[in-house]
Design brief:
The protein has 314 residues and is an alpha+beta fold. It has two domains: 118 residues, 3-Layer(aba) Sandwich (Rossmann fold); 168 residues, Sandwich (Tumour Suppressor Smad4). It has eleven helices and twelve strands. Strands 1, 2, 3, 4, 5, 6, 7, 8, 9, 10, 11 and 12 form a twelve-stranded mixed β-sheet that branches.
């Protein structure tokens, strides 16, 4: 029912606005939006600004980001309807509703330069997590996917249960001793930080996972990544760490976290890497990340007053 209402609102808005160079794509499988965006961009008149509205969860946001990266005169707008909406939440929980207002907020809103994490051939806005947190994120996603197969169970898969599923996955992850005490080779801006870690958390946005944030001062447009190397620890200390993660106080646990700020990070291990890139699961034996300062033009619908009127070429 919500989907039909959202689609009606979108179609109604562009019809009233008189927009001709617009189309609607519904993703039926992961990554389908990437090819669609690039194909659509090729057919636009020269000097046209392409604005992509990512309507949905973080998976849609991830696909649309990877679709616009590398295109000239491209902008990305986030219209959040996910379980966590981590990147948009960084603008303030009270402003999430503004990002859902396409007519009065998104369409006339200004764009601001935003940093992007490049991870090989993929791009991310919020985070890259390696270790038990990545396992928990994948576990939570699988639970939701199974629930959504059944109409009745789909009603149970509401956002209020997200942290419960995430905690369930986190608990399952810390029981895997090999994953909890995995040895990593880590290099940050040319300096080695090799060791045994439970998690490696690389943040561009403030929030990650199930609405957790390791440090309150993390900013997505400062040209640097916030990197947390979480040492392996016992079960009860791990519970304490989880509480500090929820409240943005990881910097108050120096005995557990090594905190660095940098531009590049390279990670490898003899064991498979469990990776969560903006909530999307990946597996590899080595992984490299770098920050691309101001690489994305992001539509800031959170501003208190919108002065910039929409361009008919968007």
């Amino acid at each position: 029912m919500q989907r039909e209402k959202i689609l009606a609102d979108i179609n109604g808005f562009f019809k009233v606005a008189g927009e001709k160079n617009c189309t609607l794509h519904i993703s039926t499988y992961p990554r389908s939006a990437i090819g669609f965006i690039r194909s659509f961009a090729k057919n636009l008149p020269n000097e046209t600004t392409l604005r992509v509205y990512a309507v949905g969860d973080e998976g849609i946001m991830f696909d649309c980001l990877n679709g616009v990266m590398g295109l000239e005169k491209a902008e990305l707008a986030a219209v959040p309807y996910g379980r966590t909406d981590n990147f948009v939440r960084g603008f303030g929980k009270d402003k999430i509703a503004r990002f859902r207002d396409i007519e009065k907020r998104q369409f006339p809103a200004p764009v601001i330069p935003m940093d992007v994490i490049r991870c090989g051939a993929n791009y991310a806005l919020s985070s890259c997590v390696i270790g038990t947190e990545a396992y928990a994120a994948r576990f939570s996603m699988q639970v939701y996917q199974n629930l959504e197969k059944d109409k009745f169970s789909r009603k149970l898969a509401c956002s209020c249960l997200n942290f419960l599923f995430y905690f369930w996955g986190w608990f399952a992850a810390i029981l895997k001793k090999k994953l909890q005490h995995q040895k990593y080779s880590v290099n940050i801006d040319g300096e080695a930080y090799n060791g045994t870690y439970q998690n490696i958390i690389v943040l561009n946005g403030k929030y990650y996972g199930s609405g957790m944030f390791a440090k309150k001062s993390t900013m997505p447009n400062d040209g640097l990544l916030d990197i947390f190397l979480e040492k392996s620890q016992g079960f009860f200390l791990t519970l304490k760490v989880l509480v500090f993660n929820i409240t943005g106080r990881c910097d108050q646990l120096p005995q557990v976290f090594t905190f660095k700020r940098g531009r590049t990070i390279h990670v490898s291990s003899d064991e498979p890497l469990h990776i969560s890139l903006d909530g999307e699961p990946f597996f590899d034996s080595k992984f490299s990340m770098e920050v691309l300062p101001g690489a994305l033009q992001f539509v800031d619908a959170s501003v208190d007053d919108v002065f910039v009127k929409g361009d008919n070429n968007k």
